Amino acid sequence: MPDDEVERWVRLAASQSRQVIAHCNGDAASEQFITAMEAVQADHPDLAEQRPVMIHAQTVRADQLDRMPGLGMTASFFCGHVYYWGDVHLRNLGPERGRFISPARAALDRGVGITLHQDAPVTPPDMTLSLWAAVNRVSRSDRPVGLDQRITTWEALRAVTSGAAYQYGEEGEKGRIAPGLRADLIVVSEDPLTMNPARLRELRVETTIKDGVVVYSA
Fold first, then answer.
1. CB distance 34 to 68 below 8 Å
2. What is the dihedral angle through the alpha carbons of 158, 88, 149, 189, rounded to the nearest 10 degrees?
3. CA atoms within 13 Å, Cβ hemisphere of 108
4. Which residues lie closer than 8 Å to 56 by C-beta, 6 or more apart?
5. Average of per-residue pLDDT across 194-215
6. What is the pTM of this model?
7. DSSP string covering the chain
8. Which of 23, 61, 185, 189 is the right S-S partner for 204, CB 3.0 to 4.6 Å?
9. Using one digit for the tens of pLDDT, what is the confidence trace for 30-86?
């Protein structure tokens, strides 16, 4: 899509106070989205309040991440890519760019909110694998893929709970365990915060609670 067309759609969304969620898999697409948002923000200074989202942001650059907080822009990373296709990215993009795919650490360090997704049916919906991949960053051949971009287990858990709720403007009703919020909970087989991070893939859901009602039990 031409740059002016992207800006036109962003401008229309901003005029209606609508959130923009854009799929940006390459750094050129990331640049196009950020540039359009910056151009529109000049006329809509409240644009950041709509919480624009960059989906995938797989090859977003460090200089682009620097510009995202000012736009209120968050990123949803497909960190399973690090595991499934990390070897391919290292080969195709080269070691420097390959190691920087789905740069969750760099995003958080710059104040960019993040979430994690699986992009089913590209890969099966498996949140434990997403957590494990974001925290460990190794490929299927057990090759490190940008260990400096690892995040902590706590940061990964926040990304898929309170971070996800914030990304969609639902933090007032879900995403945390607190009085007045919806009782959407799971019980897992071990404490993810105390177990060896390398074993996060072994976590199993034992109970699922929806609005305070048990809907699944192992």
1. yes
2. 40
3. 20
4. 23, 24, 25, 76, 77, 78, 119
5. 97
6. 0.95
7. --HHHHHHHHHHHHHTT---EEEE-SHHHHHHHHHHHHHHHTT-TTGGGG--EEEE-TT--HHHHHHSGGGT-EEEE-THHHHHHHHHHHHHH-HHHHHTSS-HHHHHHTT--EEE---TTSS---HHHHHHHHHH-B-TT--B--GGG---HHHHHHHTTHHHHHHTT-TTTSSS--TTS---EEEESS-TTTS-GGGGGG--EEEEEETTEEEEE-
8. 189
9. 999 999 999 999 999 999 999 999 999 999 999 999 999 999 999 999 999 999 999
Amino acid of residue 65: L
**Token digits for 196?**
């060896």
